[in-house]
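Objective 1.3, modelling of assemblies. Example input:
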Amino acid sequence: MARILLVEDNPNNQNLFRTALSHYGHEVELVGDGERALARVEGGMRPDLIVLDLSIPKVDGWTVARTIREHAEPAVSKLCILALTAHAMKGDRERALEAGCDDYLSKPVSPRELAKRVAKLVERAQAA
Amino acid sequence: MRDGPQLSEIRPPARLGALLVAMLMAALAGVWLSARADVESSHAKLRAQLDQRHLEALGHRVAGSLRLAVALSDRELADQVSRELIRDNESLDGVTVKFSDGQQLTTGETSGQTRVVELGTLAPSADLLDLGDWPLELVRAETGASVQVYAVDPSGFAAATHDAGFQPWTLAAALGTCLLVFSAFAAWQRRRVLRLGELAAAIANGDADPGRELGGWDELGWVGRQLSDLRAVFQQQVERVHGRNASLLRDVTVQHDRLERMDRFASELVAPVSESLSLTPALDRLVDEADATMGLLFVPRDEGLRCVAVSGLGDGVELSDLQAGAAARATEATQAVSELGELGPEHPWMRAAGRQVPLRGLTAVPIRFRERLEGVLALVTREPLRPEDLAFVGDAARPLAIAMANHSAYQASVGLSRALESRNLELVRQRDELRSINRLRAEFVANMSHELRTPLNAIIGYSELLVDGIYGEVNGDQRGALDTVEHAAKHLLTLVNQVLDLSCAESGNLSLEHAPVELRSLVDDVVGMAAPLCRTRPYELRATGARIEIETDSERVYQIVTNLVNNAIKFTEEGSVVVHVGPLPDGGAEIAVKDTGVGIDEEHMGIIFEQFRQVDGSSTRKHDGVGLGLAISRQIAEALGGSLSATSRTGAGSTFTLRLPARPPSSHEGPHEDPHTEARERLAS
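Predicted structure (tokens):
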């Protein structure tokens, strides 16, 4: 039901998340690092939701989030971001929110959990 | 003290009073005599006048009595009457009647010293009672008779004092003379009184020679003598005071000299305490002030007295070669010990100094500070020390002792501070080591948990997908198998999380998010989530209690309550597990999980909150678990500002109570670094 940009580097997680989300009807595009994520956005992709793992290579999740938030184009800066943080370390949540993420889930995230949260966010975004 | 003034020294005749009285009496006598003379003369005059009058009266009376006889020229009658008259009148001595016929009759004394009162002639016609003045002519003409009356002059005054009277100038002369004499006397006494005053003033001024002293046997002389005595005594006292002053001045000068010497010496000791205290300058000064030839300073060490400073031995002397010798006697003494003997040229000190001429005075002074012997000072002089020099040396020992005590105290403190410093360094090193161990551990744990979680994630994830039929339909058996896999994996994940949590909690790095939390609904959630676990148990699980809102980390509270409820369920076969929410008096709340399970005996109550401990430690125990739950739960409870405690009785069940404050404690980020953050940073770099 929604277009989702999935930014995740771990192969297992990639498969799990993509499978689960697709199963629930979302259109999932997967990129494996931050550089590619930004490229897609710059290239004109406007997903309904970005599921962003914060610990990704090349350009890390925080930078991606910040870059998107500070983008000149409103369509970009208003993109909805769901961050996947590492297991509740001090400051990770705060940093994620500070960087501009709309919501977060702490890893490990089960596919079921992810699907549920995505549904909620999409519903909210579409209602707005 | 001489005897008091003796008033008997004043001779009475000389008494001023006596003199005054005498003079007064003389004056009075003079006045009286002159007055009396005057009175006598006037008296005599008066008497003469009286006599005259008397005689005249007498004459008249005689004449009167004889008139008849005269008139009758009766000689016998005249004689008779004359005798009667002479007899009756004392002052009448004789009468001579001259008759008219010229005949004369004399009766009585008519010679000698008599006064004659010639009465003239008697006139027969005169009234006998009236004897006033008769005109003489008349009488003569008539009768030609006369009466002469003779009386002896009783008072000798008559001739002598006929011009005498009470003359004013005699009185004046007498008074004047008295006045003069009295003035002269008064002036003389006044001079003496003034002289007394001068003498007194001279004494007050302290004149050495006041001049003539005042003598005399009267009161003033007496005072004069007292003054002289006073002056003598005064002089004596003054001389005595002078003498005392002179000796005091000498004493003070001696003391002053002593103090000056001490001052000069002590100024050498007043230097800031430092590592290298050189006592040599002070020793040099001391030797100089004491007029000594050589000075040696020894300090007590384990092996005996060791020389630390010398003066007067020349350069290049090896101090360690010098032994204390006889001076060691001072270690037992409390005062300087002098006359320790002569130093001949063969004496080691003399040889070290290269001296030939023997020195006769050796004095050893113990340098004590509050009973403790700081050192011994040995002074060598040409002759044994004089008392004042010995006193000086004794005095000097005190500040020297203080300086040496200060120095050794300072050295001790320096040593102590060095020891402390090295210990500090050691401790810092240990701390840093511990910190890095902590860091490494945190890193390790973070790594391990990450490593462990990643495969678990895959297991859980794929199990979920399979169970949810995403990879195709699954039948009942398959679902059951997959459920088991999922649960086991989740259980394993929980354990991994617990280990990480514990590591976080122990190093104080739990991240907590505080927000208002309504506890009853939270407890309801927990109970709801745990309900499936009880499906196999024949008892009830329920939540009770009030709706209470506090500010805390809901996720963590959820974690703890879940842990407690799971434990309760685990250990309860039948009966009930009740989760009750209640308020605390300070505004906080408590959540009590009460079960009717096997209970915990007293022995184990102590260990249940310890890590990795379980009541049943056997390998075939009924209840699995690593034993971290309660330890972590308690840590987290405390991190939330609350507490976790338990009460129980074997066979009767247990109650675990979580208490939470209304508000979380203020942030207590420790001064230490966050090892986890550091670990991540390290991984990132």
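Chain B touches chain A through 27 residues (CB under 8 Å).
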